[in-house]
Amino acid sequence: MKIAIAGGTGFIGEPLARRLAEKHQVLILTRDPRRVKAGRAVEWKPGHTGWESQIADADGFVNLAGENIGEGRWTEERKAVLRRSRLEATEALVGAMRRSPRPGRVLVNASAIGYYGARGDETLDETAGPGADFLAELVREWEAAAKQAEGLARVAILRFGIVLAAEGGALKKMLLPFRMFAGGPLGSGEQWMSWVDRDDVVRMIEWALERDSVRGIYNATAPSPVRNREFTRELGRALNRPAIIPAPAFALRALLGEMADPLLLTGQRIVPDRARREGFEFRYPDLVSSLRHAISGATGG
Fold first, then answer.
1. Phi, psi (5° rounding) for residue 200?
2. At what angle do helices 169-179 and 287-298 cross, to 10 degrees?
3. Which residues are within 8 A (CB) of 92 and not within 5 positions of it... i.e. 6 or more apart?
4. What is the pLDDT of residue 299?
5. What is the rounded CA–CA span in Å between residue 160 and residue 171?
6. Percent of the chain beyond pLDDT 90?
7. pLDDT at residue 64, rounded to an integer
8. C-alpha distances in angstroms, 267 versus 2, 39, 118, 301?
9. Backbone region of residue 186 per phi and psi (left: phi > 0; alpha: psi in -120 to 50; beta: other values)
10. Count H helices, E strands: the chain?
11. What is the per-residue pLDDT across 189-240, written as a single tens digit (0 to 9) for each?
12. All domains of the chain in start order, with CATH
């Protein structure tokens, strides 16, 4: 297959590109070709032309483009950037497919479990309805933009949980305070964390690309969500550090504003029913094995 990846130099995109390049022709849509480590760089910018001709014969598309949700307080300006970065990239890819139609295409589009909003202890599969906060609304719009490709391609939308790898994401931010003996639960520690190993995310994207029956919405989370208190306890054990210094909810809200609750203090108990039912096998289905894998990779083990 010839596969075009938007966001192919990022936390998930870079290891995905390396894996796919082993057996596919990979094109990386990027604003900075110097950052491309695997595949062939295609310089692009949604709203501009020139890049579309280079992907006109692509068989598959992976859309991971979008500004990091957790970088910076959610001011109105920041919210606009988060929204624009996702919608413009998605609309640009769908437009490119529409202008150069080709049978048998597939689009695998990133999404997020923020779609479900704060749901307490409720167990949520792909049939659960949306939440009502900013993040849920953002994700609904993002998914709606991707669904515009239906009729042009087989569309699979993967709602990512908290992706674990030591090189980035939430785990990287947690490692330093734990290593400095300052780690502990967030707020009450009772909120659910629906996590997933980055290697399993990469494998699920590949699975969605290559398996013709995969279409629609999938939760890309490990089958064993845990409460924040359990997550921090297991991380402390993996690092041989205590996990006893809590971060009070009021302090997190003062520091982070609106984003504190949906990203840290509330959560969702997500299960990946469709992926497991349709044959996807998680390599790291439990938190202990995933943390061991991530931390051993970070230390060269």
1. -70, -35
2. 80
3. 44, 46, 47
4. 45
5. 15
6. 79
7. 97
8. 37, 36, 6, 32
9. beta
10. 10, 13
11. 999 999 999 999 999 999 999 999 999 999 999 999 999 999 999 999 999 9
12. 2-298 (3.40.50.720)
Indicate whether 187 pLDDT > 70. yes
Contact between 170 and 70 (Cβ < 8 Å): yes
The count of C-alpha atoms lying within 13 angstroms of the C-alpha of 296, restricted to the half-sphere facing its C-beta, is 7
DSSP letter for each residue of 188-230: TS-SEE-EEEHHHHHHHHHHHHH-TT--EEEEES-S--EEHHH
Please name which of 67, 55, 64 lies closest in space to residue 27, comparing C-alpha atoms: 55
The span from the CA of 241 to the CA of 233, in Å, is: 9
- Please give the structure tokens belonging to residue 172: 């990287």
* pLDDT band at residue 72 under the 50/70/90 scheme: confident
Averaged pLDDT for residues 241-256: 88
Torsion angles phi and psi, residue 223, rounded to 5 = -75, 0
Residue type, 88: E
Angle subtended by helix axes 134-147 and 76-99, to nearest 10:
10
> What is the reported pTM?
0.94
What stretch of H or E contains 59? none
28 has which bridge partners? 5, 41
Answer whether residue 280 shows pLDDT above 80. yes
Q: How confident is the model at residue 259 (pLDDT cuts 50, 70, 90)?
A: confident
The number of CA neighbours under 13 Å toward the Cβ of 300 is 0
Residues 184, 190, 194, 196, Cα dihedral to 10°: 30
Q: Is 26 within 8 Å of 49 (Cβ atoms)?
A: no
For the segment 145-149, the average pLDDT, to the nearest whole number, is 98
* CA proximity to 119, closest of 129, 111, 105, 110: 129
Residues 159, 217: contact at Cβ < 8 Å? yes
Amino acid of residue 114: G
Q: What is the mean pLDDT of residues 159-177?
A: 92
DSSP type of residue 264: I
